[in-house]
Amino acid sequence: MAKINCIGILTSGGDSPGMNAAIRSITRSAISKGFSVKGIYRGYEGLMNDEISEFTTESVSNIIARGGTILKSARSKEFQTPEGRQKAYETIQKEGIDALVIIGGNGSLTGARIFAQEFDVPCIGLPGTIDNDLYGTDLTIGYDTTLNTIVDCVDKIRDTANSHERIFFVEVMGRDAGFLAQNSAIASGAEAAIIPEDNTDADQLEHFIGRGIRKSKNSSIVIVSESPKCGAMFYADRVKKEYPQYDVRVSILGHLQRGGSPSARDRILASRLGAGAIDAILDGQRNVMIGIRNDEVVYVPFTDAIRSDKEMNKGLIRVLDELSI
Q: Is 131 a catalytic residue?
């Protein structure tokens, strides 16, 4: 394998709190070990269009507390084509970049895997996604901050739900994974969580809501994972039809979940994984995601990381069910 002298960093897909902490860690770990570093702006779009700058330790000063990503992010349809990836490879050759570190979620790491296979470029991934849906890592960068943001919002919604004796359906992100919905429901004392992993139907919904009302609760909170077909509005409409006597409201939290200064936990996680990415390159690793399992940094092959079957701990469903009586 050719000697690696220069490492390129990019963030791709949806932004997540802690990405800047990861950029900082990768940059400074790489420089401390003798590598040069280049920042690639706007994800794979910037890689194709040569939006690249030399990074120094000063380039990443005072960014650990900032949300979002200083490298910007974008979703790229062109990179999904062979022609787009060829443009990206030509940019890498022109810029003298020998290896890439990609911070992103499922789609971003899928793109990295394909690119690495086609052009034999060492690629290392970091799990940057609020959904916590990447296989092989206990936590993803941004998940903890987002979870805390949701809980803070639900606590405030609870105040008005109690004041007006309402049922609130609160929609959170996590279209294909219910980690945010399930854990925020437990942390906020919600009556139910509707998540993809549980396949909750109207009968279960009736069980949750009906039980809460019959137990003399004057309000209920239900956390719903976003879905184009069965989101919070869908379930709210069902309850309005089946329980017309109840006052039902919907709150869709939307993109506020992505923003904000990262939590201490996300800053530490991002810092450990960023340093782990440079260690992986020194170890001769390629085409792996750096994850965390049982508080240990691990290498997860891209093919495993992008699997869509990261399991939810079904014990969490039982806990919520028992505590919401």
A: yes
pLDDT at position 206, please? 66
| 248 and 151 inside one domain | yes
Tens-digit pLDDT profile for residues 82-139: 999 999 999 999 999 999 999 999 999 999 999 999 999 999 999 999 999 999 999 9
Which domain does 64 fall in, by range?
A: 6-142+262-305
Three-class DSSP category at 281: helix
Q: Which of 15, 98, 131, 266 is catalytic?
A: 131
Q: Tell me how far apart the alpha carbons of residues 117 and 123 are, in angstroms, rounded to a whole number.
A: 10
Report the C-alpha gap between 27 and 126 in whole angstroms: 14
| pLDDT, greater one: 302 or 239 | 302
Q: What integer pLDDT is reported at residue 312 of this predicted model?
A: 80
Tokens of residue 324, six digits: 């919401």
pLDDT of residue 236: 87
What's the DSSP call for residue 192? E
Average pLDDT of the residues in 248-262: 93
Query: What is the phi-psi region of residue 100: left when phi exceeds 0, alpha when psi lies from -120 to 50, beta otherwise?
Result: beta
What's phi and psi for 81, nearest 5 deg?
-100, 150
Domain total for the chain? 2
| Sequence-ordered list of residues with C-beta below 8 angstroms from that of 177, at least 6 positions apart, any chain | 131, 132, 133, 196, 197, 225, 310, 312
Which one, of 256, 255, 253, lies nearest residue 168 by Cα? 253
Q: How high does pLDDT run on average in the chain?
A: 90
- CATH for 239: 3.40.50.460
The pTM for the full model equals 0.93
Distance CA 155, CA 153 (A): 5
Burial of residue 260 (CB within 10 Å: 0-12, 13-18, 19+) is middle
Q: What value, to the nearest 5°, has the Cα angle with vertex 148 and ends 204 and 70?
A: 125
Mean pLDDT of 265-272: 98
Regarding whether 153 and 118 lie in a shared domain, the answer is no
Quickly tell me which residue has 């092959």 as its tokens: 301
